[in-house]
Amino acid sequence: MNIRQLKFFAAGIGVLALGLMTASDAIGQLAIRGGRVITMEDGQELSNGVILIRDGRIEAVGESLNIPGEYKVIDATGQVVMPGFVDVHSSGGMGQANERNSNVPYLTVLDTIDPASTFFEECRRNGITSAAIVPGNSTMIGGQAAVLKTSGTFIPEMAQQRLIGLKLSMQPPSGSRMSHIATLRREMNKAKKAKAGEAVDKDEPASPVSAAAASEDSADETAGEGAGEAAAAAPSAEQAQQGLEVLGKLIGGELIAYVYCENAMDVGQALRLIEEFQLKPVMVLGRNCDKAAGILAEKKLPVVLDSEMVFWREDPRTREEEKIVTPKIFGDAGMSYMFQADTNPSRATLGSNYLWYQAATAVKYGLSRQDALAACTKLPATTLGIDKQVGSIAVGKDADIVILTGEPLATQTWVDKTIVLGEVVYDRTSDERLRRLLITGEKE
């Protein structure tokens, strides 16, 4: 090759590199225009908003912004744009909701999550862009919870917070509540001593609870092929030490304690543990915790209502049925609260597995529209400690955005697009499952 040929070759490579660089730079440059933007920032709404996104982050938000020519534009005219929903407590996406062991702080949900699970597909379809994946309630000290984006191929790219907290359950999988709480307190005290550098007794850890020994009620906390497996072997010395270290971080509030209370009577026990070990709790309530609304309101703790928010309960003395509306009960007590979608297909109803439906139900019984939307976005993000990244539409935050066909919480409204880190991960026009559901008589 002569000098002249080399010059042409070098020039060609330069043009190709420039073209590749320009195409690469264009990736992640997105603009959303024309929609009504609910920012969830101090009640701010933009009637004809523009959002500029670069490299997965929100670059600018306003009503009269110039859109650079290289930005890909999504026209949201006539639609509503708001931050992606944040699920503060879910057991979806895992092979099974519980490891069928009662004391496993050394395990992590990350080892059982399947990114290809239909759970994450449903999240994107329903506008959920971040989800705290937490072990189920049929345990004593459950495994480690994590916060994930709902889009991605591999766990490392999905993980926002690899360790957010642990599940503590006041509901014994088997046996009595007295022995359950005593054992839980013993394990917490062991971790407290280890954290303080004191010698820890070399006694056996709490015995794992097998699926066969668990109560029938706990069976519906388990999902996937792993249901009904026998309990795992006792932890190794290394696992036991790791469990003590993680549990030690729970003490003093370094990690979130997801405290599950099945009944109102469990709340008092939970509050004593919270005070004794200085926990940073998120109270995960069963549907029969409504009678504890007053005491929870006094403590001003973060609360996640049961997915079954309206139900009938029979008085054991009079045999008369009473309609229980938990949003109204907790609202009348002066509490703010969050929602959780029911991921168990055997128990979920049309409403219980949708955050927006639960928010709409709460509005029906007195919650303000703004507070209901905050309970799906900003409040869970703040509770999880990820509010600097998600939960509202503001400059510098992750471009996790949902575009709705109409008014939020309205039954006629659909999620049109879901965007995670500036990438459209769900588009209703290309949703094959939804199309097959809505169009009858379609031939395969």
* Shape-level CATH architecture of the largest domain: Alpha-Beta Barrel
> Can you give the helix content as a percent range?
25-40%
As a whole number of angstroms, the C-alpha radius of gyration is: 25 Å
**Kindly, what is the distance between the CA atoms of the first and last residues, rounded to a whole number of angstroms?**
58 Å
How many DSSP H or I helices? 12
User: Quick one: overall form?
Assistant: globular
Main sheet attributes: strand count, strand direction, barrel closure: 8 strands, mixed
**Strand tally, please?**
17
Spell out the helices and strands N to C. Answer: HEEEEEEHEEHEHHEHEHEEEHHHHEEEH
The CATH homologous superfamily of the largest domain is named Metal-dependent hydrolases
CATH-derived topology of the largest domain: TIM Barrel
**Class from helix and strand fractions:** alpha/beta
Q: How confident is the prediction overall: mean pLDDT?
A: 84
* Poorly predicted sequence stretches spanning 5 or more consecutive residues: 3-26, 204-231
Number of domains: 2
Strand content: 15-25%
Q: Which CATH top level class of the largest domain fits?
A: Alpha Beta
